């Protein structure tokens, strides 16, 4: 499984022959100014919620690739009305089998609206179970006991957790979340993009080491294999 980071909470997963993109916020992100949005290939675009810093490039990438947007009913409907031809609406607790694996939508504690103020339904995270790896993409969320339900159903290989504080969990809460979902490997997200969520990289790495967790902070544009 290859993972490419495009900043904020945007990751492209290559799972077999399929490309799965999460929360594309690239063109407005000054830290990602070297990324050409039109070069990104995606078969599926999973959106955790409707805030601009998670959906800014979703329409363009979906139309460029004839990709399917997978999101809450309200968000899928909103993008459908903007001319995105392929959407799959979901809601919390539901799951869908897609060519790359099974996607289950799980709870996230966060507000949710679309860029024009339209109500976006419930904010969410995703658990993806594929033949290669099983992982949890938390989206924007506070620490919640609901996370403890995830390892009762899934055996996760790793989790992608927000660590920027202010709008989401901080690194301390993220390490508790890692224990809740029973993973030792965490990919950090939702940090550094704005002054509100700037972090001290060495400090968060120290917190992770003290928690006996492997914290991966990817460079924008970097690809890793897990």
UniProtKB/TrEMBL annotation:
Judging by the UniProt lineage, the source's domain of life is Bacteria
In this protein, which residues make up the domain named Metallo-beta-lactamase?
7-190
Q: Which InterPro entries match?
A: Metallo-B-lactamas (IPR001279), RibonucZ/Hydroxyglut_hydro (IPR036866), UPF0173 (IPR022877), UPF0173_UPF0282_UlaG_hydrolase (IPR050114)
Q: Which Gene3D superfamilies match?
A: Ribonuclease Z/Hydroxyacylglutathione hydrolase-like (3.60.15.10)
GO-annotated molecular function: hydrolase activity
Which UniProt key words apply to this protein? Hydrolase
Indicate whether Hydrolase appears among the record's keywords: yes
Q: Which family does it belong to?
A: Belongs to the UPF0173 family.
Could you identify this protein by its name? UPF0173 metal-dependent hydrolase DP923_07300
């Amino acid at each position: 499984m290859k993972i490419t980071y495009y900043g904020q909470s945007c990751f492209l997963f290559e799972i077999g022959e399929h490309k799965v993109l999460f929360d594309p916020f690239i063109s407005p992100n000054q830290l990602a100014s070297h990324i050409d949005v039109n070069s990104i290939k995606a078969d599926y675009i999973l959106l955790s919620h409707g805030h601009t810093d998670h959906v800014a490039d979703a329409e363009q990438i979906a139309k460029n690739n004839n990709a399917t947007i997978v999101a809450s009913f309200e968000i899928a409907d909103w993008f459908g009305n903007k001319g995105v031809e392929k959407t799959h609406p979901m809601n919390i607790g539901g799951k869908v089998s897609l060519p790359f694996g099974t996607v289950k939508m799980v709870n996230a504690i966060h507000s949710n609206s679309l860029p024009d103020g339209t109500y976006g339904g419930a904010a969410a995270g995703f658990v993806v179970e594929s033949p290669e790896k099983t992982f949890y993409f938390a989206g924007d969320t506070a620490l919640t006991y609901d996370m403890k339900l995830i390892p009762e159903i899934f055996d996760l290989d790793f989790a992608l957790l927000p660590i920027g504080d202010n709008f989401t969990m901080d690194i301390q809460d993220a390490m508790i979340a890692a224990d809740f979902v029973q993973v030792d490997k965490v990919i950090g997200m939702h940090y550094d993009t704005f002054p509100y969520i700037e972090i001290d990289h060495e400090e968060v790495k120290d917190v992770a080491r003290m928690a006996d967790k492997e914290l991966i902070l990817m460079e924008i544009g970097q690809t890793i294999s897990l």
